[in-house]
Amino acid sequence: MTEQAAEDEAEAGLQMGILEALNEIMALERGHRSPGGVLIFLAGEREIREVALLLRKKWKVPAEILPLYARLSAKEQNRVFSPLRQTRVVLTTNVAETSLTVPGIRYVIDPGMARISRYSVTSKIQRLPIEAISRASADQRKGRCGRISDGVCFRLYSEEDFLGRPEFTTPEILRTNLAAVLLQMMKLKLGDPAKFPFIERPEQRQLSDGFQLLTELQAIDGERRLTRVGRDLADFPVDLRLARTLVEANRFSCLKEVLIIVSGLSVQDPKERPADASQKADEAHDNGGTVNRTF
Question: What HEC string does the chain produce?
């Protein structure tokens, strides 16, 4: 079986598990006078769209199906806070794990997976692989239901799987590129980063890799002292490589053109359009993209 075939099979199994859990929830709901909400945790936006489409096609229960993720507009996100008038199914990433509390949730469906940002020292790339969540994250998800009354959590994995998971998620400082952190520490004059008393101390190779990138970008000199370029880079709220591109573009008087390229590279998906402005997006495309419109 190919890797793609294995992924497709796992995805189909997940969707079947969600449908079975929802059917069981409907059986439990018969004992309640008021409608209850269902919170389903999924790995990312693509998975949310696919499950939403699946439920609208195959789940024959009248329900309000709402997506919830960080990049959604404030208007769309606020729909989950409106009063419940019928069964509501909220499809969310781990943004609802700790960042906010969705009211009216009586049930949680937890497949036990999430996209977790990790930096590969070998490939020099920050990745977002789908991984099994920790036991602490699973318990946090379970706590999203039944906050004001009894609730039920459906975990779509075995107890043996749960007990074999790490107790806590690896701290972000141990799984990210430290170049931007080191640059800010040097700008704020917090002393030698190698001697800084981190609560969770990064490995030496992480620090070395961060310093190496800063050297390549000419943000620090051979003595690890901040350069003028480094001070400029520290002011940009984008990836350091993109920031260095902008600094160089300004030097060669082509900043306007490079800004367009960097803007496209700095967003997750330049093809995405605001869900609450799809009509305006269609109109802009119909005009060949030449009309200046504010979404």
Answer: CCHHHHHHHHHHHHHHHHHHHHHHHHHHHCCCCCCCEEEEECCCHHHHHHHHHHHHHHCCCCCEEEEECCCCCHHHHHHHHCCCCCCEEEEECCHHHHCCCCCCEEEEEECCEEECCEEECCCCEEECCEEECCHHHHHHHHCCCCCCCCCEEEECCCHHHHHCCCCCCCCHHHCCCCHHHHHHHHHCCCCCHHHCCCCCCCCHHHHHHHHHHHHHCCCECCCCCECHHHHHHCCCCCCHHHHHHHHHHHHCCCHHHHHHHHHHHHCCCCCCCCHHHHHHHHHHHHCCCCCCCCC
Give the tens place of pLDDT for each residue, 245-292: 999 999 999 999 999 999 888 876 666 666 666 677 777 777 655 444
Please give the domain boundaries of the chain with CATH numbers for all domains: 3-170 (3.40.50.300), 173-266 (1.20.120.1080)
Contact 12, 111 (CB under 8 A): no
What pLDDT is stored for residue 273 in this prediction?
A: 64
Task: Lowest mean pLDDT of 74-88, 119-133, 224-238, name the range.
Answer: 119-133
Q: What is the pLDDT of residues 170-200, one digit of tens each?
A: 998 898 889 999 999 999 999 888 889 998 8
